[in-house]
């Protein structure tokens, strides 16, 4: 891509996108910014910080002397991301809105909007690297292993990667903050965003309870003993400890309780004691809805590593195609709390190959779990 290319940077108000814009301008690109509003908060509190973030994006654009556009993708986010997540929660699964947002908003709606503005490419502050040649682009890990965000970007295919720039691929977060300070960006020390915009810092159960009916039911042990009451299976995920409100008792002293399974048919939340209880261990998983960076994926079984969550240490195993289009992943070592609905992302060294949505978890041999979610 020539340095005369017209690039629109998704300026979020954060330090990563700010430095991305600064780097691209320094490299000779024609740079413009675009601030995306992806969520319309429907209450009067201040959990969603869109206006404050826009002010930070404006200061960055003014400092760089570049135009700043503003686009509202809230309708697309509601139908493409939020409504999908609600359905997944109601089905007892644990979706990942950040991955869906990258796929359908940042690299679809934003990319389409940028092209209408005449852009040749879009850029974001993601920590990842695009490699390869036209038609054979690769998605590779960033230099900063702690910040690498390929887990969230595995759904990007050749069309998206051909039009994407990730200027922070070779940078570390401390270096990015230093550059932002030197550039005069007021957000140089702004904390990293956590969570997702439609929940923000507010209580997870309280927020989702506005959209999902609560169906309280029993919290039970593996042997069926009732220990308490849950607020609705949609509000819990496998491996969760917080929010169970199960204190110690004479009958069950010692270790804290964790969610081990969801009995959807009888509306029961099954819990066990101990972070590493055998019922929380899984030898493998089966996933569907696979997305491959190269558009095809491996034809036969492959040796690979995998992540079940962002920043997890890569876990080696074998990935095997099944006759129905799904794939089975068998780990070398059991993995804790594999959660249906979450993404599993597979790698070959530094290359992110793609990923799928976990459908079924495969309990470790001899696991006492009552049922498989």
Automatic annotation (TrEMBL):
Subcellular location: Cytoplasm
Record protein name field: tRNA-specific 2-thiouridylase MnmA
Enzyme Commission code: 2.8.1.13
Chemical reaction(s) catalysed: S-sulfanyl-L-cysteinyl-[protein] + uridine(34) in tRNA + AH2 + ATP = 2-thiouridine(34) in tRNA + L-cysteinyl-[protein] + A + AMP + diphosphate + H(+)
Main location: cytoplasm
CDD domains the UniProt entry points to: MnmA_TRMU-like
Record-linked Pfam families: tRNA_Me_trans, tRNA_Me_trans_C, tRNA_Me_trans_M
Stored InterPro entries: MnmA-like, MnmA-like_C, MnmA-like_central, MnmA-like_central_sf, Rossmann-like_a/b/a_fold
Purpose: Catalyzes the 2-thiolation of uridine at the wobble position (U34) of tRNA, leading to the formation of s(2)U34.
Residues annotated as domain tRNA-specific 2-thiouridylase MnmA-like central: 206-273
Keywords annotated in UniProt: ATP-binding, Cytoplasm, Disulfide bond, Nucleotide-binding, RNA-binding, Transferase, tRNA processing, tRNA-binding
Start and end residues of each stretch annotated as Interaction with tRNA: 147-149
GO BP annotations, alphabetical order: tRNA wobble position uridine thiolation
Source species: Spiribacter aquaticus
Gene: mnmA
Domain annotation tRNA-specific 2-thiouridylase MnmA-like C-terminal: ranges: 283-358
Xref: HAMAP family: tRNA_thiouridyl_MnmA
Binding site for ATP: 10-17, 36, 125
GO CC terms in record: cytoplasm
Residues flagged as site, Interaction with tRNA: 126, 342
Residue ranges, annotated region (Interaction with target base in tRNA): 96-98
Protein family per UniProt: Belongs to the MnmA/TRMU family.
């Amino acid at each position: 891509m020539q340095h005369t290319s017209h690039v629109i940077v998704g300026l979020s108000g954060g330090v990563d996108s700010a430095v991305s814009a600064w780097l691209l301008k320094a490299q000779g690109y024609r740079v413009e910014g675009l601030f995306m509003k992806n969520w319309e908060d429907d209450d009067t509190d201040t959990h969603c910080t869109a206006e404050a973030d826009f002010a930070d994006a404006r200061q960055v654009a003014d400092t760089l002397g570049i135009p700043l556009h503003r686009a509202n993708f809230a309708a697309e986010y509601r139908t493409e991301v939020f409504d999908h997540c609600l359905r997944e929660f109601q089905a007892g699964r644990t979706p990942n809105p950040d991955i869906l947002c990258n796929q359908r908003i940042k690299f679809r709606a934003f990319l389409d909007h940028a092209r209408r503005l005449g852009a040749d490419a879009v850029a974001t502050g993601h920590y990842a690297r695009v490699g390869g040649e036209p038609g054979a682009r690769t998605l590779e890990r960033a230099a900063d292993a702690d910040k690498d965000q390929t887990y969230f970007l595995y759904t990007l295919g050749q069309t998206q990667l051909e039009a994407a720039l990730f200027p922070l691929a070779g940078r570390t977060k401390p270096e990015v903050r230093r550059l932002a300070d030197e550039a005069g960006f007021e957000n140089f020390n702004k904390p990293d965003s956590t969570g997702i915009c439609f929940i923000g810092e507010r209580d997870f159960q309280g927020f989702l309870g506005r959209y999902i009916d609560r169906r309280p039911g029993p919290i039970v042990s593996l042997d069926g003993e009732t220990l308490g009451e849950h607020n609705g299976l949609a509000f819990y995920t496998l491996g969760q400890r917080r929010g169970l409100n199960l204190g110690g008792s004479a009958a069950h002293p010692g270790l804290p309780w964790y969610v081990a399974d969801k009995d959807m048919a009888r509306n029961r939340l099954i819990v066990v004691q101990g972070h590493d209880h055998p019922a929380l261990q899984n030898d493998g998983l089966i996933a569907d809805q696979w997305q491959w960076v190269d558009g095809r994926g491996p034809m036969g079984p492959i040796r690979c590593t995998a992540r079940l969550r962002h920043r997890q240490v890569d876990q080696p195993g074998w990935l095997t195609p099944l006759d129905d289009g799904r794939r089975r992943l068998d780990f070398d070592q059991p993995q804790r709390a594999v959660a249906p609905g979450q993404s599993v992302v597979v790698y070959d060294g530094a290359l992110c190959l793609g990923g799928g949505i976990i459908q079924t978890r495969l309990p470790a041999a001899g696991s006492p779990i009552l049922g498989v979610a």
